[in-house]
Amino acid sequence: MLCLSFSFSSFGQSSIASDILSMQERAQFIDDMTEQRVTQLLPAMMTKSGLDAWLLISREYNEDPVLKTMLPATWISARRTTILLFLLTPNGTVDAYAIAPYKVGSVFKQGWNKKRQSSQWEALSELLERYQPKNIGLNYSTNWAHADGLVLTDYKTLKTNLPAKWRNKMVSAEALAVSWLEQRIAPEVAMYKDIVRIAHAIIAEGFSNQVITPGVTSTTDLQWWFRERVRELKLQVWFHPSISVQRNEQPALDSDTAFSEGHEQNIIQYGDLLHIDFGITYLRLNTDTQQHAYVLKPGETAAPQYLTAAFTTGNKLQDIFTDLFKAGKTGNQVLKQARSAAIEAGLKPTIYTHPIGYHGHAAGTTLGMWDAQTGVPGDGDYPLHHNTAYSIELNNAVFIDAWNKEIRIMLEEDAMFDESGVWYLDGRQTELILIGETPAK
């Protein structure tokens, strides 16, 4: 078993890369996590969901989102037709089989003997006969695309090749699939802290006078700088970064248009309030961060008081919101309570928080969308569970007298929700990043 421990608490601009794992170390970590998750999480998850068997089927390049999280790190995709079968045993453990023409990592037993069994479907039928499950969970779901990975052709092939006895036992594995995707184990959480710290360090590097020259650097330039920097670090982004500007001379930010159409290119100027939305993928986990920076005018050593005061309202909204998290509450319940409390406190909130983990917009409890502030049917009705991660994403609108218009403080930080409540994986932004007046060289 691989045991890795790294600290990124004092990243410098040159130290980020030195603390990122090699590709071989990443593969070891990923495979170790898969094995631990199968043995530690699946037995209880399958028992809770009432499933005796869980069947996942994918063909190469058309992978079920859940199955893809279980493949060995050296596999970039499934191979031919890859079938994974999990079976709950009478003693409460799970036996994991790969019914495939290739060995699939170390956690899966070989489920197909090609010399003895003419097809994968024969091998599958024999395993089902041996274990006699009362039901067989398949990945189809109305509310979560992540749990809807069984494609029509594979479903038809399965039904054609399985005896009627087993076809009649097939049910949705939605609850199990969502649980697998949203739950984190302790070693993942420990590493997740460092992953978010890396993302924060990259933002700090980009929001600096080493990268930005006021009057020269455009928001588009900065977006592509982040893309290039991430690739230099041998990492990936899961969405194209966005950079927006709020300033005295331009119209108030139309948040609806910004969400649906994106931000227009601007040349960054002194006195601008900058905003970034940025996320990386590393060790199969994702980050999603929104922060603000202020470009100091010549002679300034701090942002204007009205901007720093506005920024604190974003933190206030975060606190009101996260204090209401409680296991068993639905996303829609928390959203309604948080908006009511924030409005009563004099704020003008918009809340659109989502689970994060194997996917940036992950499976689990949705707590609002930017265009659905009264609740989200389906995944908004899903209850919160402990040991899950969320991007605490929201904004608060504040009227700035000096600019004679409303601005938005748009924040997003990755956090864990467990028995202790909500806590940020690498802290959160509590003051504006200041970009100095010295031009980049």
Reported for the largest beta sheet, the result is: 6 strands, mixed
Amino- and carboxy-terminal Cα gap: 46 Å
Strand order of the largest sheet: 4-3-2-1-5-6
Give me the strand/helix succession.
HHEHEEEHEHHEHHHEEHEEEEHHEEEEEE
CATH class of the largest domain: Alpha Beta
Task: List low-confidence stretches.
Answer: 1-13
Percentage of residues in helical conformation = 25-40%
In total, how many domains does the architecture comprise?
2
Q: Please give the count of helices.
A: 12
Shape: elongated
Coarse structural class = alpha+beta
Name given to the CATH homologous superfamily of the largest domain: Creatinase/methionine aminopeptidase superfamily
Kindly identify the CATH topology of the largest domain: Creatine Amidinohydrolase
Strand content: 15-25%
CATH architecture classification name of the largest domain: Alpha-Beta Complex
Q: What is the averaged pLDDT score?
A: 94
What is the C-alpha radius of gyration, as a whole number of Å?
A: 24 Å
Number of strands: 18
Descriptive overview:
By secondary structure, the chain is of the alpha+beta class. The protein folds into 2 domains: 42-180, Creatine Amidinohydrolase, Chain A, domain 1 (3-Layer(aba) Sandwich); 184-435, Creatinase/methionine aminopeptidase superfamily (Creatine Amidinohydrolase), CATH 3.90.230.10. Helices cover 32% and strands 21% of the residues. The chain has 12 helices and 18 strands. It has a 6-stranded mixed sheet, with helices on both faces. The protein is elongated and about 80 Å long. It starts with 22 loop residues before the first helix and ends in a 6-residue tail after the last strand. The model is unreliable at 1-13 (pLDDT under 50).
